[in-house]
Amino acid sequence: MRSEEVISDEEGRHTLRMRESIAREIAAAGGWISFERYMDLALYEPALGYYSAGARKLGAGGDFTTAPEISSLFGACVAKQCAEVLRAVREGSILEVGAGTGRLAVDLLTRLESLAQLPSRYFILEVSADLKERQRRLLHAALPHLGDRIVWLDGLPEPFDGVILANEVLDALPVTRFRWDGTAFEELGVTFQDGALSSAARPADPTMTARCKMLMAHALSEEASLGTAVLDGYVSEYCPRLQSWAAGMARSLRTGAVLWFDYGLPRAQYYLPERRDGTLLCHFRHRVHDDPFRYPGLSDITAWVDFTALAEAAAAADCQLAGFTTQAFFLAGMHIDAEMQAFAGGDANRFARLANQARQLMLPGEMGERFKAMAWLRGLDLELSGFALQDLRHSL
């Protein structure tokens, strides 16, 4: 183990309790659980899961950094997109799902106040008690005069008018993992043997087999045309709950927009033959690794988003798919350059720092292309500026 990965005694006890809890569930299930169930436990088990326990997750002292933590430019641009919707909705509010440290909420409300377009309410739906407390402290310190507008919820408000916003939420939904052995699909689950968690395969049932064939139709047809087993051992994943979860989020929306920001791909690009190890990623202390069984309860586990599935969910939610683009083109459409000028206020050094932050948000090798933005609309006929420069809906 590398020295920088040495964990404290307290962290060691925590991950041991998490591992023991998962082992008990595996034993009760007959020795095997699905990876989806494992990921659910590792992330959300009360008091033990990564998002349910008290470990610091975001920012310099955490495990990963999101766009709002990199720069307030991101929140300022998203705020201007929200303002377009709020102008068209009578007494509209904002609902942020999974608000992280609260940084995005601060940046959104600050910029919306400067635009004289504050929402009637700023709702936050957060599953992590630790993050909820951090959000309260940050928002109270930064925007004490707006405290009466900010409301934490345990469930969705109904009916809701305004903007529903989710930044890097979908990638944390538990996924099912599968493998193609050259002749059939297998489901990859989790066992506990000799004191260790490990992956174990079993034949996929007919429903899962049909799902995998649909997802990989292009790759399988390409393999068949070549007459070779190029996909033998191919591993990937899909999120069984993405469509129903996303549609459920929008169910309370009466008039307004849903804005999704996350890393991912359209389905045709997601399941390419060369992406044979899938997209599962784990984060621990700002390092990326591919072992979901390392430090359960301490490591984040994520998978890229199938944006075709998210687009399909729009129809299930009775919403219009109003836009799909890269994060770079979204920010350009919201005139991030003008935000940089306004933030710098003539200070050349500050402008240089902001320019560096903008590069992190926009360059292809950073977040610019890996991260995508998608918009749904209901009850509105509105052109959204963030999606005006590039339209990738045809790729879905």
Write the layout of secondary structure elements.
Blueprint: H1 9-28, E1 33-34, H2 35-44, H3 67-70, H4 72-88, E2 93-97, H5 103-114, E3 122-125, H6 129-142, E4 150-153, E5 160-167, E6 176-180, E7 185-193, E8 196-203, H7 206-215, H8 217-226, E9 234-238, H9 242-250, E10 253-265, H10 267-270, E11 281-284, E12 287-289, E13 300-302, E14 305-306, H11 307-316, E15 320-326, H12 327-333, H13 336-344, H14 348-362, E16 371-378
Parallel strand pairs: 2-3, 2-5, 3-4, 5-10, 10-14
Antiparallel strand pairs: 1-7, 6-7, 6-9, 7-8, 10-16, 11-12, 11-13, 15-16
Gyration radius, rounded: 22 Å
- Counting DSSP E segments of at least 2 residues, the number of strands comes to 16
Note the total helix count. 14
> What composes the largest sheet?
8 strands, mixed
Q: Which consecutive residue ranges, at least 5 long each, have pLDDT under 50? A: none
Q: Topology as H/E string?
A: HEHHHEHEHEEEEEHHEHEHEEEEHEHHHE
Could you tell me the strand content as a percent range?
15-25%
CA-based shape = globular
Cα(first) to Cα(last) distance is 42 Å
Oligomer: single chain
Could you please describe the fold and organization of this structure?
By secondary structure, this protein is of the alpha/beta class. Helices cover 38% and strands 23% of the residues. It is built from 14 helices and 16 strands. The strands form three sheets. Strands 2, 3, 4, 5, 10, 14, 15 and 16 form an eight-stranded mixed sheet that branches. Strands 1, 6, 7, 8 and 9 form a five-stranded antiparallel sheet that branches. Strand 2, helix 5 (103-114) and strand 3 form a beta-alpha-beta unit. Helix 9 crosses helix 11 (307-316). It is globular.
